[in-house]
Amino acid sequence: MNLLKYIIFSFCAIATTAVMAQKPIYLDETRSIDERIEDLMGRLTLEEKIALIHAQSKFSSAGVPRLGVPDLWCTDGPHGIRPEVKWDEWDQAGWTNDSVVAFPALTCLAATWNTDLALLYGRSIGEEARYRKKDVLLGPGLNIYRTPLGGRNFEYMGEDPYLAGRMAVGYVRGVQSNGVATCVKHFCLNNQEWNRHGVSVHADDRALYEIYLPAFKAAMMEGGSWSVMASYNKIDGQHAGHNYRTLQQILKQEWGYKGAVISDWGGTHNTDEAVRNGLDLEFGTGTNGLYGGSKNYYDSYHLALPFLDGIRSGKYSQADLDDKVRRVLRLHFHTTLNTNKPFGSLHSPEHYAAAREIGEEGIVLLKNEDNLLPLKLDEKKTILVVGENAVKMMTVGGGSSSLKVQREITPLEGMQQHFPNTVDIKWVRGYVGDTDGSYNGVTTGQDLSETRSFRELVDEAVAEARSADYVIFIGGLNKSYGQDNEGSDRQSYDLPYKQDSLITALAKANANLVVVNISGNAVAMPWADNVKAIVQDWYLGSEAGEPLAAVLAGTVNPSGKLPFSWPKALNDVPAHRLDAYTAHDEEYKESIFVGYRWYDKENIATLFPFGHGLSYTSFVYSKPKVSKRAISASDSLTISVDITNTGKVAGKEVVQLYIADLESSLPRPVKELKAFRKVSLAPGEKTTVCFTIGSDALSFFDPDKHAWVAEPGKFEAILASSSADTRTKVRFELK
Ligand code: BGC
Q: Which of 33, 543, 574, 624 keeps 20 to 30 A from 17, CA to CA?
């Protein structure tokens, strides 16, 4: 018997060893990715290589069926996982299991100034992507906020490259910990939606390197994003999807990026350029197999038959192809071929909690005269809520980031759930915005129709406002065409739907008026002086109403800070003041002076500065200490400051460190954000915040040398609560 067992055991062991020995290197996860790529490269036919580098459906590209390499599935991004569309079309596939959690828009994430929350955001949305079996998440969006008219600013992280970069690193690492790639977008200089496929932008080298590239570089090189999406616009006359300078020279040669460059959907226009200028994976060039004639339409993509024929005829080299294939395979090894990745999860309580926490920390209290907020709800109170955005579901709309959610709490519902039941809440419409709650076949199912005239709605709101203890106006923009929306910019800086006149009338009727603005962009506020409290709410996703109600009631102390400057008038914005916002040839005349860099230089007061956000408590900064008064270029310096919560409630403060170069051979911004830290303090509590900076925080991009240069001289470290609220500063020298 024992002998029989021994024979069976030996046989099995031999068989197992034989099977193991046969395991190809590309499937052997003990090998390095580079070895596995080379092994797989050696097994692929020319046709299989071509199939890997272009789409086979709206959102997937082919794997290698013969060798068990799975298809690669992409999804939007960046605020939740997009519902399934048909294989060949944008129309809904009609699945009933693809509803998700909508996380707050990226403007809100940036407004938290909390890198831990960026990681949490990434991890959570990555889990949803993974559960939905997606390999590439098309996000985060990292384009710099250049004009408040920008239709997609809500999908980006504000005007400052350092802030956007720090937040992006967390998001990328969080997503990719799930074996799901991020695809940072839109690379690059895609700062408007107006003529987004045709506009040709021209930015000088300093603007490019100091303002428009750093967040991408942080996300890709430090965060390690496995892919990047090239944008629609042209850069110096050549489409960004196959732009030699940005993709080949900067991204691949200068930075040494090893990931895959994916086209935006329909952003590829020229085969020669697509082959030679750094595009690796083509998506969305034409839709479908339905209207493309007898052949599979995807075969006509630039990186399909035209490329294949060119290789066969000797026009294109095998090396051009192999570089793209290696990059796409690397993406596969991190995602589809990674058998160690977790399984993910969908609409878990943890995801809702994450969405809520990010919302709570991102809401910005812009103004709070007479401490009107938090609302005093300890005894019987009547609250009149006015405005369409109090009841409108905002997760549907806006373009490719539109979602199909499992649930969405509107602001009105949030207040009803959150406020004590001694509070009597009444809602009136006030204005009619966009009653259509649908995008691309997904509908909210809400009936927002209204037959009364604007005059009647205002009269009703004003009459009700007179007798209320508080009036909370909830308006702003929405995600309809021409507002915070992909494919169009806003037509005006003003609030739409005559909201200004409604707010003015409400302010006259009741002094206890709180204006809640929901948007991803700054808007004109001609009534700002007549309103006691203004709250910047963003598109907060599934939980929307909860964080807002918590901030209004004071259960959460607001701690968000603006990720962009809030100008008084559109003409204060450099792109508009300098006539540098156009549909065709657009020169970025303001160069590096974007956002606060411009307002500081021109001494233009904003309505609310970059980094601004009030709290229900107050913080006092001590005199800072520096570890040394002078450093050399290879040295670093520590700046420390004590922060004390001097108020009566716990709160969070974002300590912002700006550096001013006091003597420089080239013009520089008055100051630039180089570090920040969010701290949480109980009443009376004190903590020490330390920042360590090196010469990289002191340097500028010298276009003549084509290098970052830190010039010896005097610098100032400015510790501030916003870009216009310096609390304390200290000087030091670079030897
Ligand atoms: C957008 C991208 C998006 C892609 C796929 C494009 O129109 O610009 O941001 O990821 O579509 O939906």
A: 33
